[in-house]
Amino acid sequence: MKTRKILSILIIAVLFMGCSSDSSSDGGIIVGGPTNGGDDGDGTGGGTTPEYLQDFTNFPMGNIVSAFKLSSTSSANVDFREVLLNDYNSITAENDMKMANIFTSAGNYDFSDGDAIVAYAKANGLRVHGHALVWHSSVPGWLNSFSGTNEEFEALIEAYVKATVSHFAIEKDANGNSIVASWDVVNEYFDGGSIRSSIFQQKIGDDFIDKAFQWAREADTDVKLFYNDYNIAGEPNKRNLIINKVNSMISNSVPIDGIGMQMHLNHNWPTSDLPLAIQQITDTSLLVHISELDVKANYGNDVTELTATRAQEQADQYQNASYHYTNIVPTAQQYGITIWGVRDQDSWLYDGGGDWPLLYNNDYSTKIAYDSFIDGLKGNP
Fold it and tell me: Is residue 110 part of a domain?
């Protein structure tokens, strides 16, 4: 079994004892890697050594983590880390680096979970994408009930953004680059065809997005700053609002480096709008990050299990996403693809077993979508 990163002696020992033999003759599951058992070097399969997702790209391949999963000694989380280090070289904190987890009270911050994630990334040569500084769905309770003036509220948010970005700029790799290379500064500013009504919009104003990006840049002159949103592919009117806003930010010298296209897709949606959306976001000349990719297989609740037909439709949609990103976005603008979870049961869309949105089954074996995703990365439509 190929291991891409150097783990601690203890973890290596656990993996060695817990994993099946490299040979598939005993019927053991290979954790991660193509379902055909590997590649013989020509990309067609048939070999004995698995090749992993990050082998097929020149851009970062990411997934989500938590501080708990990175430290837990349970067999499931040991397997999780093995898949993570085999297939991925970029990580995003699913929840641990959001405001609700960090901003404990006025002027006080708990960075411990994020620090654990950064330490793990540094030890294993991973990039960290910060997620997310300002999001309407991750506001701590004490801040939601804040009774001070709007000016005082804005001062709190400014201090929080600057403290968080500057804190996570400290830890560097061997080349002097921050482990946290980027941030989703504002997440989901728009709601359909209008600016979302949120506590930030109500107390600071519509321009809170511009201020948040400016505060983040003042805290770190080098970190890449992203705007992140869902249904950029699939809702053309919303996409146009985002593009217009981003272009306005650029014209007014508001610092922004990239756009995160979340890409929470369905097995049959979107279709023709998917490549069009990627092209139009690319046309902004900013970095493009597929930031939260998953594909619902049971959006209409019309199946009770992942049938062969539905699994193939899901696989085709994963292939569409990887193919169009790889072929439309110029290399200089490819910030990477981040998949929003590893095995199905850990997905926010799992719904108690009613959907199967990710690339791995619950035992960490790969689905056919894994191989189709690789086909798209290789340029096969």
Answer: yes
